[in-house]
Amino acid sequence: MKSYRKELWFQTKLRREFINITTEVDRVIQDSGIQEGLILVNAMHITASVYINDDESGLLKDYERFLERLAPQDADYHHHLTGEDNGDAHIKRQIMGREVVVAITNGALDFGPWEQIFYAEFDGRRRKRVLVKVIGE
Amino acid sequence: MKSYRKELWFQTKLRREFINITTEVDRVIQDSGIQEGLILVNAMHITASVYINDDESGLLKDYERFLERLAPQDADYHHHLTGEDNGDAHIKRQIMGREVVVAITNGALDFGPWEQIFYAEFDGRRRKRVLVKVIGE
Amino acid sequence: MKSYRKELWFQTKLRREFINITTEVDRVIQDSGIQEGLILVNAMHITASVYINDDESGLLKDYERFLERLAPQDADYHHHLTGEDNGDAHIKRQIMGREVVVAITNGALDFGPWEQIFYAEFDGRRRKRVLVKVIGE
After folding, report:
1. Which of B1, B101, B111 sits opposite C40 (nearest CB)?
2. Distance between A84 CA and the closest CA of chain B, angstroms
3. Using the beta-carbon criterion (under 8 Å), do B100 and C97 form an inter-chain contact?
4. What is the pLDDT of residues B115-124, one digit of tens each?
5. C78 chain-B contacts, CB cut-off 8 A
6. Residue A15 in contact with residue A123, Cβ under 8 Å?
7. Model confidence over C30-83: pLDDT tens digits?
8. Residues of C with CB below 8 A from A42's CB?
């Protein structure tokens, strides 16, 4: 069994952004040399998500509106008693998820026709990381 | 390390359906010959989910009602400007999740007493796929 | 490839509790002797979650309030026609997720600075289990 590890770094300009990272993840598989296995892609921070869905700008707006409705940025959060102001981001990240696990087949992401991997930032404007771990053969 | 791959195909009659796929997934493990490892089961389409919960008809109605309340089929979605009409399905799938990863122990799904794997379709009535990938020994 | 399996047992005093299990999971990795691989941590019951986020008491209250707003304990659920009273718990668990998959690097959880693994109980006061499965080398 082989394993391979890579960190991807991001610094968004906005508090909230959706970034398609499929190409970067694909490159990690190629660097790993692994042909058959699993790849884990996870946010290393707790106010960001990694998820898989369509790369369509209207849909990204729908996600933004949906998440803001469920956990508005300006609402009151117990978490803010610590001095933080990102209670909404901790909830948004739970809805969208921390990680994805994808099959690797023939040295590539084993994807359906529209699957794309996104890094979703809910409390950005600072350097944050995504972990990519590959295991297989 | 061994690996094994199988696609499961579905075409639902309704736009939204919940299908228990536990038996099919179990059969893939048997076909793989893998005794100890992990199995990934994921929707290959972005308007469907794979998740684990109880196979109880009332609960499935509760999920349907809950998801329709959060993301109604008939609401306005930016995504519909593309000509699509499934904005709700992209959101419902995010709530229920894309994939499950299950332990394989002694050649079988390592499950608690009530765990069942479901394919949740939110934009059906056409042929769509679930990917099953097994790794282990 | 090596694999290792351990069950963690919990019995909460309250119906709903959040328990930080990071130390227990770390110990399983040490017991496994695995240096590089993946670890799966999942609730074996369908009214509980395993998720990763911050260990901050205000945030846990925010999660509790958020989940209770989306799926109130005292609402009507079709699932209750079976005699059960935990329809809310089946929904809360779907929002927070069943499982996490974490990378193991150099024999430890490969975590960002604030990542902590939680067992979230939504229908407690009885003995319930979490499964930990490690694969790697």
Report:
1. B101
2. 26
3. no
4. 999 999 999 9
5. 57-59, 61-62, 65
6. yes
7. 999 999 999 999 999 999 999 999 999 999 999 999 999 999 999 999 999 999
8. 101-103
Contacts of B44 in chain A (CB under 8 A): 111-113, 115
Q: Which of A70, A87, A98 sits opposite C59 (nearest CB)?
A: A87
Query: What is the pTM (predicted TM-score) of this model?
Result: 0.99
Query: If we measure between CA atoms, which residue out of A134, A133, A110, A119 comes closest to residue A12?
Result: A119
Count of structural domains within chain A: 1
Cβ of B87 and A52 within 8 Å?
no
- Interface A–B counts its CB contacts (< 8 A) at 92
State pLDDT tens for residues A56-100: 999 999 999 999 999 999 999 999 999 999 999 999 999 999 999
Using alpha carbons, select from C107, B9, C88, C135 the residue that is nearest to residue A38. Answer: C135
CB pairs A-C closer than 8 Å? 92
Q: Check residue B81 and report its DSSP letter.
A: G
Residue range of the domain that includes A12: 2-136
**Burial letters for C95-132: b for 16+ Cβ neighbours within 10 Å, e otherwise?**
bbbbbbbbbbbeeebbbbeebbbbbbbbbbeeebbbbb
CB-based contacts of C100: which residues, under 8 Å, 6+ apart? Answer: A98, A99, C40, C41, C42, C50, C51, C52, C117
For C69, nearest residue in chain A (alpha carbons): A70
How far apart CA B91 and CA B86 sit, in angstroms, is 9
Q: Which residues of A touch C57 (CB under 8 A)?
A: 78
Q: Collapsing DSSP states into helix, strand and coil, what is residue B54?
A: coil
> Quick one: tokens of C104?
């193991």
Strand runs labelled E in B58-111 = 99-105, 108-109
CATH code for the domain of B61: 2.60.120.460
Q: Are C42 and B23 in contact (CB under 8 A)?
A: no
